[in-house]
Amino acid sequence: MPFALTYPLLSIHLLGEKINASVWQGVWKMATQGFSYTAFLIFICAVFMPIAFALLVILLRLAQMVKAKPRNLLISLGYIKPWVMFDVYLVALGVTMFKVKEYATLELDIYLIAFIFTALLTTLLFIKINPAEVWNDFYPQSKAVNDITKAEDLRYCHYCQYSFLNPLTDNKGKEICPRCYSQIDIPSAIKLQRTWALLLAGIIMLFPANLLPISVIYVNGAPSADTLMSGVLSFIDMGSYFIAFVVFTASIFVPVSKVLIILYLLICVHFKLKHSIRWQMRLLHVVHFVGRWSMLDLFVLALMMSLVTRGQIIDFSVGTAALYFGAAVFLTMIAAEQFDSRLIWEIYDRQHKTHNTH
User: Fold this and answer.
1) What values do phi and psi take at 215, rounded to 5?
2) Rounded to an integer, what distance in angstroms lies between the CA atom of residue 65 and that of residue 62?
3) How far apart are CA 43 and CA 139, in angstroms?
4) What is the pLDDT of residue 312?
5) Distance separating alpha carbons of residues 118 and 90, to the nearest angstrom
6) Which helix (H) or strand (E) holds 317?
7) HSE-up of 54 (CA within 13 Å, CB side)?
8) Which residue range forms the structural domain that includes residue 249?
9) What does the UniProt entry say about where the protein is found (predicted)?
10) Among 16, 62, 115, 176, which one has the highest count of C-beta atoms within 10 angstroms of its own C-beta?
11) Could you give phi then psi for residue 200, rounded to 5 degrees?
12) Rounded to whole angstroms, how far apart are CA atoms 333 and 294?
């Protein structure tokens, strides 16, 4: 991971000078050239969260060896896992290669192998580590629960998936899970308010993200600004149809479709629409899976910042749309996490009971 994050992954020869690009260098250059908020969003997903995830796995193993009860580490695991985006960054490297070919000769550095291996190993960690199973390893299910025959006597925590009989109470008198201490039975209205607030904020951010320029290239002092859509069209003009498809999918199709799917699910909940539960749950799973891939464009911007910044003759700058786009990605990802799938199942259960009664 140190080699993958700090050492050069790509190099170009521009105006007789070799310029290197690394993950950290792209974030640092963006931050020092007046785009600190956008750089912070990239830093969270490409540097901080991957390191935190790796350290978390090591600490959990140490806790297992000394037979400790790492409640806070397990809670952190659930929050950190969706934000580790090495696989997205790997695709961003490929897009950047095609983008810089028109300006200079491109070379791949040996440390790119380290990044590819880190991305693959992180993906394997994702597959191997199931937060629900890790919770059960450290905090096994109570034997008393297994002897209960009446389901109505049981309580259930939807965060750590723990079944129990008697909840604890916090200092505000609210019932909490005895295993992870998260609040149970949060009113549906509160969950919907959170989802609506985050989604509407994300929708607002998408307008300037798509209308304003996301990048500006200066050639001999003449600026050439690109919006999200014009960037896709430039790849089509270059004949890079597959890259254009990847960028269009990650930058335009995924953010818009994610918003439309969450809107559809919220409308189903509010108006008690009785549609196929299988179809609705598949849509929700799709939203959770594809949401993170929208960060692709910001990762490409960070790499371009470190590669193409050479003063008067050729220069690359981040556009004003980048921050709005990053905010929209973050807000819609959190909105999807806040949406409670039980609200859909309640409609299905009512429909099923009504059907059985008739």
Assistant:
1) -150, 150
2) 5
3) 33
4) 46
5) 10
6) strand 314-318
7) 14
8) 1-140+186-356
9) Cell inner membrane
10) 115
11) -65, -40
12) 10
Convert the pLDDT of each residue in 224-245 to its tens digit. 788 999 989 988 888 888 888 9
How far does the chain reach from its first CA to its final CA, in angstroms?
Answer: 61
- Does some domain include residue 168? no
CA geometry: angle at 197 spanning 86 and 50, to 5°?
15
Whether 74 is covered by a domain: the verdict is yes
> Tens digit of pLDDT for each residue in 132-161?
889 999 988 776 666 655 666 678 888 888
Which sign, positive or negative, has the C-alpha torsion 106, 112, 113, 116? negative
> Does 336 map to a domain?
yes
pLDDT in tens, 125-136: 988 888 888 999
Asked if residue 89 belongs to a domain, the reply is: yes
* Distance from C-alpha of 19 to C-alpha of 199, rounded to nearest angstrom: 40
Number of domains in the chain: 1
CA distance 339 to 59: 30
State whether residue 279 is helix, strand or coil.
Answer: helix
Partners of 14 in the β-ladder: 17
Label residue 49 exposed, middle or buried (CB < 10 Å: 0-12, 13-18, 19+): buried
pLDDT of residue 242: 87
User: Residue 104 is encoded by which pair of tokens?
Assistant: 């200079």
For residue 125, give the amino acid letter: L
Element (H, E) at 37: helix 36-43
